[in-house]
Amino acid sequence: MPENPIPGRRTFAIISHPDAGKTTLTEKLLLFGGAIHLAGEVKARGQARRARSDWMKIEQQRGISVTSSVMTFEREGVTFNLLDTPGHEDFSEDTYRTLTAVDSAVMVIDVAKGIESQTRKLFEVCRLRNVPIITFVNKVDREGREVFETLDEIADLLALDVAPMTWPVGMGGTFEGVYDLVSNRLLLPEGDSREFQGKVIQTTGLDDPQLDAIVSAQNLAKLREDAELALAGYASFDADAYRNGDLTPVYFGSALKEFGVDSLIDALAAHAPPPHALPADPAPVAPDHGEVTGFVFKVQANMDPNHRDRIAFMRLVSGTFKRGMKLTPTGHGKPIAIHSPIMFFAQQRELADEAFPGDIIGIPNHGTLRVGDTLSEKAAVRFTGLPNFAPEILRRVQLKDPTKTKQLRKALDDLSEEGVIQVFYPEIGSNWIIGVVGQLQLDVLLSRLEAEYKVGANLEPAPYDTARWLGGEPGDVKEFMDLNRGAMAKDRDGDPVFLAKSAWEVGYVADRYPRVKFLATRER
Ligand code: G4P
């Protein structure tokens, strides 16, 4: 382990629209990083995992990935922590939280489809937090759009400067390889099948006569012309602009055929930011802050159906974590001795002895740790900026068997801690209300209630349309609550929530009670 491991750490996520190639690219990154040895393992592992519990059938049926995990690999002295984000738009909340735990992101785009809806949403989340983005335009081994069209689309739709770093040589039927504009290397297929990248030719530049002997005349003429135009017409790479989130370097490649993947890893190693200071109360915390601090960005229950375990995923922000260390969750009390922290390597969970800023550790617990919790040695800081979002869909939960109230309450509390749903307990009446951001979460809720808690339930329309947390002076908030008890509920932490019948009603009460704030997000 190098003396100061912080500069050599890259904690990142891949953002993309389903089908753009995130799984394939993940697999190839792990392969290049030596974390797995055979292509196909990530997918196989996914399938084995899916077979494990009933609710994951939804993943299979819909062909989407609902859970997220962490994968660590190393290459040439750099440690990469890749946080997988759930790919479906219904899980924007979970995804958002995962993106709070990364220092940079790779945006994967399908060369034939360009920027798609989900990519765009995820990009906006990154922009909110100034997460720097490297773009990987995938599938250049297939017919796609003109390179210029793709670059201009990124620039226009995302309002970013683009800096092309590599360039495809031909596409689809005429695909011959990828040219690296920065290192002047030509990446070529090798072997009889010419299926995969195997050969790298170092050239002296685009006018190197070697190229004439290797690349077909037509592709070479186009490469030379296009690259010259591109180098003149687009921004050149600027590390500061990239780190500020104003510019994205763009790599072209084929995850399937392994073209451009090593250029991408090199780019992450060379340019992506290492762990840095994160916003906290009372002051931002830098990685070299004297004590161990971190925050929980995800909680996953029942990873193993045989054990009712829960894993809290903590992003380490500062200090050197050592196994057995005691950390205290800010605001709720007792120190926890962390005897069996888990690091998530590609193939298995491994016990961690030490972890450094930027690393993710899994902390098994029985429900003490929640999303948004800060853990530290002295419990004197609190990380900010991990919000809950106001739900867009509210439903009343109806038990099929009324004797199972206790189990239902437990399940709803568990699942809300995991961030699958939000739960609201009305002040008056006994019908619990659950809230979600997307429809799919409702299906996940019902399947998991059945499979993991043996609770049959139906969901009915609720008389409410949205929810708002309250802010302002305690006296004003109390007055509002007293006058509106019929529409008040408590969330899982006992904080008051106003359940509104419509967006119009939110506007109406906001006008009538100008001293009360009606908040669409709540930060823990
Ligand atoms: P996702 O995680 O972003 O949803 O995408 P995934 O990697 O699963 O890839 C979606 C499809 O695109 C897969 O095909 C995959 O093989 C293909 N693909 C990924 N990268 C490339 C590439 O660089 N070139 C080409 N030509 N195809 C690529 P599939 O037919 O849906 O699955 P499979 O049967 O091949 O596994």
From TrEMBL:
<feature type="binding site">
    <location>
        <begin position="138"/>
        <end position="141"/>
    </location>
    <ligand>
        <name>GTP</name>
    </ligand>
</feature>
<comment type="function">
    <text>Increases the formation of ribosomal termination complexes and stimulates activities of RF-1 and RF-2. It binds guanine nucleotides and has strong preference for UGA stop codons. It may interact directly with the ribosome. The stimulation of RF-1 and RF-2 is significantly reduced by GTP and GDP, but not by GMP.</text>
</comment>
<dbReference type="InterPro" id="IPR041732">
    <property type="entry name" value="RF3_GTP-bd"/>
</dbReference>
<dbReference type="Pfam" id="PF16658">
    <property type="entry name" value="RF3_C"/>
</dbReference>
<dbReference type="InterPro" id="IPR005225">
    <property type="entry name" value="Small_GTP-bd"/>
</dbReference>
<keyword id="KW-0963">Cytoplasm</keyword>
<dbReference type="InterPro" id="IPR009000">
    <property type="entry name" value="Transl_B-barrel_sf"/>
</dbReference>
<dbReference type="Pfam" id="PF00009">
    <property type="entry name" value="GTP_EFTU"/>
</dbReference>
<dbReference type="InterPro" id="IPR053905">
    <property type="entry name" value="EF-G-like_DII"/>
</dbReference>
<dbReference type="InterPro" id="IPR035647">
    <property type="entry name" value="EFG_III/V"/>
</dbReference>
<feature type="domain" description="Tr-type G">
    <location>
        <begin position="7"/>
        <end position="276"/>
    </location>
</feature>
<dbReference type="Pfam" id="PF22042">
    <property type="entry name" value="EF-G_D2"/>
</dbReference>
<dbReference type="InterPro" id="IPR004548">
    <property type="entry name" value="PrfC"/>
</dbReference>
<keyword id="KW-0648">Protein biosynthesis</keyword>
<dbReference type="InterPro" id="IPR031157">
    <property type="entry name" value="G_TR_CS"/>
</dbReference>
<dbReference type="InterPro" id="IPR027417">
    <property type="entry name" value="P-loop_NTPase"/>
</dbReference>
<keyword id="KW-0547">Nucleotide-binding</keyword>
<dbReference type="InterPro" id="IPR000795">
    <property type="entry name" value="T_Tr_GTP-bd_dom"/>
</dbReference>
<feature type="binding site">
    <location>
        <begin position="16"/>
        <end position="23"/>
    </location>
    <ligand>
        <name>GTP</name>
    </ligand>
</feature>
<dbReference type="InterPro" id="IPR038467">
    <property type="entry name" value="RF3_dom_3_sf"/>
</dbReference>
<feature type="binding site">
    <location>
        <begin position="84"/>
        <end position="88"/>
    </location>
    <ligand>
        <name>GTP</name>
    </ligand>
</feature>
<protein>
    <recommendedName>
        <fullName>Peptide chain release factor 3</fullName>
    </recommendedName>
</protein>
<keyword id="KW-0342">GTP-binding</keyword>
<dbReference type="InterPro" id="IPR032090">
    <property type="entry name" value="RF3_C"/>
</dbReference>
<comment type="similarity">
    <text>Belongs to the TRAFAC class translation factor GTPase superfamily. Classic translation factor GTPase family. PrfC subfamily.</text>
</comment>
